[in-house]
Design a protein that fits this description.
single chain; alpha/beta; Rossmann fold; 5-stranded parallel β-sheet; 5 strands; 15% strand
Length: 175
């Protein structure tokens, strides 16, 4: 099983990159799944807030605060990472490629190094996100700013440009 990690700030194009990447990998008859570290946080938001998991605006402040609580106040700061690692052990029996589309923290990369992940950082220099000042200053928006170990950094300019870049990555990585 190959693992691809897609990192970036809010509204950088991580989800778009994941779907374009999946589309390209599927052309090689590989079985692919897109998943998220935040799926458990979102599950709690659905249960606690009644959010449907799709509607905008997302309850971003809740998602950020809840994730921070679990990582910093609970007895297990790697709770979400450990759950994902458990999921990866299941996925490896059913798929060829797993794409994690929402990497925000260094630990989310470093703690899965045994899978030899391909790491992609999506940059959006358009500053096209509508976060409040408090949301924009959250650790998950800045934790990877100085991280230098990405295999690829791609700019989210247009969908067609991103698609071509990802096509080249798939070819180069043999996915």
């Amino acid at each position: 099983m190959k693992l691809v990690l897609i990192a970036g700030k809010a509204r950088s194009g991580k989800t778009l990159a994941a779907h374009l990447l999946k589309e390209e990998i599927l052309k090689n008859n590989e079985k692919v799944v897109i998943t998220e570290y935040s799926k458990y946080i979102k599950m709690f938001a659905k249960e606690l807030l009644g959010w449907d998991g799709i509607s905008e605006p997302k309850p971003r402040k809740f998602l950020q605060d809840f994730g921070t609580y679990v990582r910093h106040e609970s007895q297990n700061p790697h709770y979400f990472i450990e759950r994902m690692k458990d999921d990866l052990e299941i996925y490896r029996h059913f798929v060829d490629v797993v794409i994690i589309s929402d990497v925000r923290l260094k630990e989310e990369i470093e703690c899965v190094k045994e899978y030899h992940p391909i790491t992609i950082h999506v940059l959006n220099n358009q500053n096209a996100y509508d976060l409040s000042e408090e949301e924009a200053s959250h650790e998950t928006e800045h934790a990877l700013e100085n991280y230098q170990n990405f295999d690829y950094s791609i700019e989210n300019k247009t969908e067609s440009e991103m698609k071509e870049i990802l096509k080249d990555i798939v070819k180069k990585e043999g996915i």
